Amino acid sequence: MKNIITQFSRIFVGVLFIISGLIKLNDPVGFSYKLAEYFSEPVFNMPFLEPLALGLAIFLVILEVVLGVMLLVGYKATQTIWALLVLIVFFTFLTFYSAYFNVVKDCGCFGDALKLTPWESFTKDVVLLFFILILFFNKKLIKPLFSTSATNLAVYVSVTLSAFMAYWVLNHNPIKDFRPYKVGNNIEKGMEIPEGAPKSVVEMIFIYKVNGVDKEFTEKDLMNIPEGATFVDRKDKIISEGYIPPIHDFTMTKDDSDYKDELLKEPKLVIFVTYDLTKSDPKGMQKLSKVTADAQAKGYKVIAMTASNADEIAKAKKEYGLNIDFYFCDATTLKTIERANPSIVVVHKGTIVQKLHYNDVEDLKLSDVAYNL
User: Fold this and answer.
1) What is the pLDDT of residues 102-148, one digit of tens each?
2) Rounded Cα gap, residues 101 and 89, in angstroms
3) Helix, strand or coil for residue 373?
């Protein structure tokens, strides 16, 4: 019975680590955004690690896949199980911290393929920790499945393929897109709230300075505010969160007006997405001028979306010869739309028909006639 439980744990842990690792390896940039969120000031306040987020993300996801393979084939069982234990303890701490302090809404354990709440993520890690502890106390029962040379080969192949996959998706696009802005999705429909969907319950909190100290009062307490107290601020406290549509923070703002309703009706629209112009790849930006000319010649409206300020926009337009309008959108939203900076998105009446990394500009398909969707 002990052997059966151990072997089940071996398969369960190994397969789950491989699946989880491959999903994140499909989109390491997205996982790096999650790590950067943990490193940010509101969470662990370790901003010096934010520039290392992408490198750490790639290392961790490759390690996750390779450890899963090592466990399944029985490669150096003791070292493998120790590594798994250290990794799961680290992840369990992160997910508990996220859940308890409510600082990171989604740990990114399964990327955008499967969204878990902080407490669900923590529960998942506790279950994994339980099975890894079974393996830890029964290490002697983990035997290699193949000969030494075949076992070594399996591990080397997993490392090589994982590294190649990371290289590929970083220089192109995720192999499988799980985001709400994937090709075929309509942006306007993604923003719709179904009839009868639960609404958020929000309580208004009023802040007054009482004897030099800021104190919070609910609407019911307003009659009890001490005389001489001065109003400071008002904030909304979410009691229960209602339905949030997949796309809920998409804007196309210019001169304090949101043009998304107008632009998303365009039959032929090319959007250059660059969340931060100061961090955009110069070689990628240089390619956009030619794309603009080709697209406009075929009747496309060409625009750009960024979270950068007016000075940065003016500098980029001059430096790269981009005589197009730039619209503002939140950086987090733009990072969700596309991982490359810059990237190209082709839209037909709100429906995304093509998305390209700047390295794949030659694959851009521009039609001389309107799309028939």
Assistant:
1) 777 766 667 677 777 888 889 999 999 999 999 999 999 999 989 99
2) 18
3) coil
